[in-house]
Amino acid sequence: MRIVMLGAPGSGKGTQARLISTKYGAVHLSMGSMLRDEVAEQTEIGRSIGGTLSKGDMVSDSIVNMLIESQLHSYESVILDGYPRNLEQAEHLDEYLLEHPPRLDVVFLLELPLESVIRRLSGRRVCDRCSRTYHVDFYRLKTCPCGGTLIRRSDDNPTTIEHRMEVYKKEIAPLRNFYQEQDKLFPIIADQGVEGTFADISRVLDGVILPSIKVPNQAK
Ligand SMILES: [Zn+2]
């Protein structure tokens, strides 16, 4: 299966992608973590994008396209989280998958009111080891069960959050239209708790993905 997760920063894309990965066995590809890894490992790409990331700006299309292609080359069943971010990337992905099938099955759009986004992001902490996220209102410990330390991401501050939301709003409209025209877009209400949101996602996947996988098997 090939799935794309769309949604504002803080809409819970990463959490839901992890749950899908556990239940359906696809690889979770988080562009945010991939980029932060490049920065942490001080690769050539990492050194060139460090400043862009901490300001909450977009990394160039050519870099993220290249990173995602190297992953799609290795994994067939994936959940893309944080990519594509704009229409150019979506069109690039489509062309790439046309030559390297399977193509996308489902695109989820997690929808959340702006005030919830701000509340979630300003209290968000990320584990520096496993990238799991927590909210200070619900999780009071300073460490993750994996042993990692919980840190505030450099782009989760009020000024940057506002800027990231402006960037997001500008980019999401054309993306939404693009996938809607392909009949692949499934909007999901993301303000109903992790379990409620995942239940909606599972219903879609069970209806769309599983039948499409079973048909070729039965035909054999
Ligand atoms: Zn952890």
Biggest sheet, in brief? 5 strands, parallel
Q: Which word captures the global form?
A: globular
Separation, N- and C-terminal Cα atoms: 19 Å
Helix-strand pattern, N to C? EHEHHHEHEHEEEHEH
How many discrete domains?
A: 1
CATH homology superfamily: P-loop containing nucleotide triphosphate hydrolases
Mean pLDDT: 90
Which helices and strands occur, and which strands form pairs?
Layout: E1 2-7, H1 13-24, E2 27-30, H2 31-40, H3 44-55, H4 61-74, E3 78-81, H5 87-99, E4 106-111, H6 114-122, E5 124-127, E6 133-135, E7 150-151, H7 158-181, E8 185-189, H8 193-219
Parallel strand pairs: 1-3, 1-4, 2-3, 4-8
Antiparallel strand pairs: 5-6, 5-7
Zinc ion (ZN) binds at residues 127, 129-130, 132, 144, 146, 148.
Short description:
The protein has one domain (2-113, 157-219): 3-Layer(aba) Sandwich (Rossmann fold), CATH 3.40.50.300. It is α/β, with parallel strands linked by helices. The protein contains eight helices and eight strands; from the N terminus they run E-H-E-H-H-H-E-H-E-H-E-E-E-H-E-H.
Question: What does it look like?
Answer:
The structure is a single chain. This protein has 220 residues and is of the alpha/beta class. The chain has one domain: P-loop containing nucleotide triphosphate hydrolases (Rossmann fold). 55% of the residues lie in helices and 15% in strands. The chain is built from 8 helices and 8 strands. The chain has helices at residues 13-24, 31-40, 44-55, 61-74, 87-99, 114-122, 158-181, 193-219; strands spanning 2-7, 27-30, 78-81, 106-111, 124-127, 133-135, 150-151, 185-189. The strands form 2 sheets. It has a 5-stranded parallel sheet, sandwiched between helices. Strands 6-5-7 form a 3-stranded antiparallel sheet. A hairpin with a 5-residue loop joins strand 5 (124-127) and strand 6 (133-135). Helix 1 (13-24) crosses helix 8, helix 2 crosses helix 3 and helix 6 (114-122) crosses helix 7. The radius of gyration is 17 Å and the shape is globular. Residues 127, 129-130, 132, 144, 146, 148 line the site of zinc ion.
